[in-house]
Design goal:
Elements (H helix, E strand, L loop, with lengths): L1 H11 L6 E6 L6 H14 L3 E6 L10 H20 L3 E3 L4 H13 L4 H4 L5 E4 L2 E4 L7 H10 L16 H12 L6 H29 E3 L5 E3 L1 H6 L2 H16 L7 H12 L4 E3 L2 E6 L2 E6 L8 E2 L5 E2 L3 E4 L7 E4 L1 H7 L10 H4 L3 E5 L2 E4 L10 E4 L6 H4 L4
Parallel strand pairs: 1-2, 3-5
Antiparallel strand pairs: 4-5, 6-7, 7-10, 8-9, 9-10, 11-14, 12-13, 13-17, 14-15, 15-16
Helix pairs in contact: 4-7, 4-8, 8-10, 10-11
Amino acid sequence: MALMVLLADWAEGRGMALAAVTVDHGLRPEAAAEAAAVARQAAGLGISHDILRWQGPAGAPGNLQDMARRARYRLIADWAAGAGIGHVALGHTRDDLAETLLMRLARGSGVDGLAAMAPLRRMHGVAFLRPLLDVSRAALRAELRRRGLAWVEDPSNNDPRFERVKARRVLAALAPLGITAERLARTAQHLATARAALRGATAEAAQRLARVDAGGAVWLDPAGLAELPEEIRLRLLAHALCWVSTAEYRPRRDALERLAAGLAAGRGGTLHGCRAVRRRAGIGLLREPRAAEAAAPAAPDALWDGRWRFVGEAPAGAVVRALGAAGLAILPDTRRAGLPRDVLRASPALWLGERLLAAPLVTEAEGPCAMLDPPGGSFAQAAIAH
């Protein structure tokens, strides 16, 4: 509510139009009425408002709040894209920074996990802004009271079953030690500065030590990798795994350390939907065929496995899926592709049933082609984000 009111003031002085959106996660019966109340407030401010609904899997295991959060970002991004909106503001506050730091401390997180949320984050094609990170919840509530505006408190914010609520209560208990939300948020900001420096060093190493082949595999110089400080070496490996698999989050630190140790000893391994191999060409991070996206309709300009864009005409019923061992067995000679066979196995191919129509990375015949179009840009560019 406070975010909407403050942005309405900001936009009015600039002649800009705003649109608001509320996500009803369907987790509480009161949520629909609360979303409708926000819509009425938005209308009073001259702001258009939409309500998005998430149908979470019934009885789903795991962290329900985390599932809802991820779904919320995806729903909002899709809504923004449909409305031609490129920037979405979120209401995270200084208190959220402090609580998140405590939650991540409990998990043993490193610099990235403990660093403050970014004031700007691009995700799913949308720029998400957090303009209230320097403002406390108490200050926002005071501003709403000053304006005579009511707001609704989510009951889950007081439910001790949730990790964030536990962190909030611990934070209150730490106040006698001088550990306040303001000071924890400042620590998180310092760690964000350190994170930026580490990302810069990783991007420099990526530019210097890595190459990407035509099949989308990343090859690293073993000698150069061994000379890197351990933190940068692990970050570079993590970035390669995320870039090849298009995974949003890095693998766990202990898994990364085991993979790095194995590669240093001349062994390969699998992690994060990728295969790590030692070859004469260097250390390769290849997409694992079994982890690649299942068959997807061969629609023009469609994106397969998160990074391959299909271009060209295809007959009705055709799909894009990994070439696989079956496709390699059909092709008489793959040497002209100049790529290892285990790279080609995970490459995009056009199929009609079990009939192979095209293998763009193997054959040079006219017809459909596949272009590498990773969401974060080139390998070196994307290293800044990871």
